[in-house]
Amino acid sequence: MKLHGYFRSSASYRVRIALNLKGLSTEHLPHHLRKGEQRAPAYLAINPQGLVPTLEDDTGAVLIQSLAIIEWLDETHPTPPLLPEDPLRRAKVRAFAQALACDTHPVQNLKVLARLRQLGLAEEKVTEWAAWANREGLSACETLIAGEPGPFCFGATPTIADLCLVPQLANARRFGVDVAAYPRLLQAEAAAREIKAFADAAPDKQPDAE
Predict the structure, then answer these.
(1) By CB atoms within 10 Å of each CB, which of 22, 83, 128, 163 scores lowest?
(2) pTM attached to this predicted model
(3) Across the 210 residues of the chain, what is the mean pLDDT of every consecutive 10-residue run?
(4) Helix %, strand %, coil % of the chain (to 5)
(5) Please, what's the b/e burial string for 157-189 (b: 16 or more CB within 10 A of its CB; e: otherwise)?
(6) 77 and 126 Cβ atoms separated by less than 8 Å
(7) DSSP secondary-structure letter at 132?
């Protein structure tokens, strides 16, 4: 398999964790987002959104969107499972993951921040926007799992919720958010950091890290 990504991309980070947890060997193909390499014609021919990640499987099939990729990996390589068996629990895990991957991350990503700069916002205001988006999402997620048993977001093993949480907390810190306000989320993050699959997927461990 081939994973098109970028070391700092939260969405790529999620997929790297999933691949590591599944023990899958992958060729990593970096696309420097700040240099606009994701807009190159050759890459747009693979992913017309011009976003990362993109996964190419061994047959040449192309998959985009991190959550879709992660669920496909979970369905085709079911050990260890990243979603609970119980339908209600599955829905709760998916909801948490989507709160971060669909409602938090997109409004503070590079594309949106670049547009804010184009509209004339000062860099300080752009950073404030990103910090606000992170606080909004993380605050909601802290409440969502306040009553869930740990140490992970939804129990004793990591799920797609944790795969989304760890990269989002990294983003929040990058934008100056005081994450001490989210003790339950930090508990889950600490548990994840003890797992090699999470540690090896970290941005600073990637060959294209700056």
Answers:
(1) 128
(2) 0.97
(3) 97 98 96 96 98 97 98 98 98 98 97 97 98 98 97 98 98 98 98 98 93
(4) 60, 10, 35
(5) ebbbbbbbbbbbbbbbeebebebeebebbeebb
(6) no
(7) H
Closest-CA residue to 133 (of 166, 175, 170): 175
Burial 9-38 (b: 16+ CB within 10 A, else e): bbbbbbbbbbbbbbeeebebbbbebeeebb
User: What is the chain's length?
Assistant: 210
Rounded Cα distance between 66 and 68, Å, is 5
Angle (deg, nearest 10), helices 87-101 and 160-174: 20
Q: And the tokens for 102? A: 């669909």
**Structure token digits, residue 92:** 């709760």
Q: Which residue in the block uniquely carries the two structure tokens 């004793």?
A: 156
User: Exposed, middle or buried by CB within 10 Å (0-12, 13-18, 19+), for 79?
Assistant: exposed
Nearest to 154 by CA among 187, 127, 180: 187
Q: Which amino acid is at 28?
A: H
Q: Which residues, 6 or more positions from 27, have their beta carbon under 8 angstroms from its beta carbon?
A: 1, 2, 3
